[in-house]
C-alpha cells in the first residue's frame, strides 16, 4: 500500500496538476477561440495584440510594443513587416534617433478597429461567465504574471 505522502508526492508530477500546463493549454484554447473571429479581418492573434496596443495609443516605438507585449525584437520585427505589407501600419525611423523605429497606424489600421469592436463580446459569450467574472479572472492572471516576473531571491543553498 502506498502512503498518502508518497501518493501526494507522486501526483505532484501529474500533467494535470501542473500550473504551467494549465496556462499553456488555456493559451492554446484562447488562440483557437480567437481565430474564427480574426480571420474575417485578416489578422492573426499576435497581429491582433499589436493592433490592440496601437489602438490604445498610436505612434509607439518598436521597443515599447515589445515591452507591452512581452515580445523580443526578433519576434516582433517580422510581425510588424507583415502588418506593414498588409497596409495596417507604417514603420519609420525616429527623427531624433535613427536607431529607434516608430510605428504608426494607417487609415486602414485605424478602420480595422471598428471591424474588431465586437470581438471581446463574442469571446465572452463563447467562454461563458459574466463580464465581472472574466474581469476578475483577468486581474488574477495579471497578478500571477506579475509575481512570476518579479525578481526571485537566490537561495543561499540548494537542497537536493
From TrEMBL:
Entry-linked InterPro entries: HTH_MarR-typ, MarR/SlyA-like, Transc_reg_Sar_Rot_HTH, WH-like_DNA-bd_sf, WH_DNA-bd_sf
A Gene Ontology BP annotation from the UniProt entry: response to stress
**Which SUPFAM superfamilies has this protein been placed in?**
Winged helix' DNA-binding domain
**Stretch forming the signal peptide:** none
UniProt main location, coarse: cytoplasm
UniProt-listed SMART domains? HTH_MARR
State any GO CC term: cytoplasm
**UniProtKB keywords:** Cytoplasm, DNA-binding, Transcription, Transcription regulation
Source organism per entry reads: Diaphorobacter ruginosibacter
UniProt-recorded Gene Ontology molecular function terms: DNA binding; DNA-binding transcription factor activity
Q: Which domain of life is it from?
A: Bacteria
Keyword Ribosomal protein attached? no
List, alphabetically, the PROSITE patterns matched.
Answer: HTH_MARR_2
Protein name as catalogued: MarR family transcriptional regulator
- Provide the HTH marR-type domain boundaries: 16-150
Where does it localize?
Answer: Cytoplasm
Amino acid at each position: 500500500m502506498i502512503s498518502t505522502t508518497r501518493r501526494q508526492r507522486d501526483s505532484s508530477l501529474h500533467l494535470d496538476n501542473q500550473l504551467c500546463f494549465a496556462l499553456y493549454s488555456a493559451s492554446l484554447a484562447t488562440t483557437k477561440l480567437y481565430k474564427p473571429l480574426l480571420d474575417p479581418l485578416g489578422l492573426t492573434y499576435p497581429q491582433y495584440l499589436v493592433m490592440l496596443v496601437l489602438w490604445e495609443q498610436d505612434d509607439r516605438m518598436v521597443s515599447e510594443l515589445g515591452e507591452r507585449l512581452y515580445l523580443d525584437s526578433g519576434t516582433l520585427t517580422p510581425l510588424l513587416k507583415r502588418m506593414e505589407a498588409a497596409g495596417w501600419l507604417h514603420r519609420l525611423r525616429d527623427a531624433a534617433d535613427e536607431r529607434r523605429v516608430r510605428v504608426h497606424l494607417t487609415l486602414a489600421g485605424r478602420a480595422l478597429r471598428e471591424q474588431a469592436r465586437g470581438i471581446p463580446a463574442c469571446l465572452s459569450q463563447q467562454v461563458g461567465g459574466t463580464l465581472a467574472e472574466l474581469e476578475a479572472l483577468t486581474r488574477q492572471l495579471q497578478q500571477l504574471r506579475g509575481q512570476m516576473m518579479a525578481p526571485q531571491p537566490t537561495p543561499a543553498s540548494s537542497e537536493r
